[in-house]
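Protein in question kept in full:
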Amino acid sequence: MANINNRIHELLASLGIGIVIGAGGAIILERIFNRTSRELGKLSDLVGEIRDELDKLKSVLSESTDSASIRSRGVRKAGSYYSIHPSSGDEDDDEFEEAYEVFTTAPESLLYKDAPEYQVDDEELSEHLKEVDKLFKGSEDDVISAYDLLIESREKYSRNAQVLWRLAKSHMLYSGIKSKHGESIEQKRLLYEGSEIAKKALTFDNESADAHKWFALLIGSLAEYEPTAQKISNGFLFKEHILKAIELRPAEAYLYNFYGRWCFEVSMLSWWEKRAAQAIYGSLPESTIDEALSNFLKAEEIEPDFYNANSLMIAKCYIQKREYTKVAGWLEKAVSIGGETADEITARTEAKTLLPQYK
């Protein structure tokens, strides 16, 4: 019983953004401590039910030796999406703790693919934005220079959404640099400041797809610093703003990839994981493998072969759907598509590992 309780606590801590992101509100953390004995009794009963169901599941799995079952069980272990935060491999302990980062962490290769908005009357501002965008695509020193330029111009363009969302973006990119150098306090500061700047950008232009995108990614990046209830609340916001970005810019493949990753991880929660979380927090986002797959395929329709990890995720969706004849082709794409960022290399490696099982 103690192990089951510990497992549930680990799950609740990992649900993070509510495993990310739907629309609605989460119940504040303090409610947990105000539960009556009757409510706690219900939770205890639920834990008992979970334990019984797990015992039954273990019994069924121990008797199952057919190849389809073996494939299905193997897939979950390999199912965690690899971004710049790859899985440790110890899924039983780490899978749910990592789940939040999985679908809210922007893959490195996609961080620089905004659609520039230079529709401004001010020529000086237009040149400023172009210079910043060029620096974003350069070295770490260039990213820092972009950050510095935006800080310098912040007061002058304090009500300009195009400057503000780029300033928010620069905070997130700079936080990644700080993280690499072990400067965790500065990393945290930059992420929180960046999320507030992105939020401010939306007050001046709620029709900016990039402002919505960077607000979503920044609040997603706060997962490790927030209590569980706030992570769930932020998770609903993440979905809301990614979907808004898609609405505003429906021809951008990477946005469908972001949302597809979220749908995939949400759909992978088991029924008892969802029930345990709902018993305490009241509501969680929902999605399906089919919804995830439709978003990944939409991204490919818009921009074929744009990102090898998108091909990998399509393969994983077909694995979950047990449509195994469709898997190998997408894994081969994931191997062959170029790209040398950390997440692209990891996705290629994983595809190579999976491919022999489905040829």
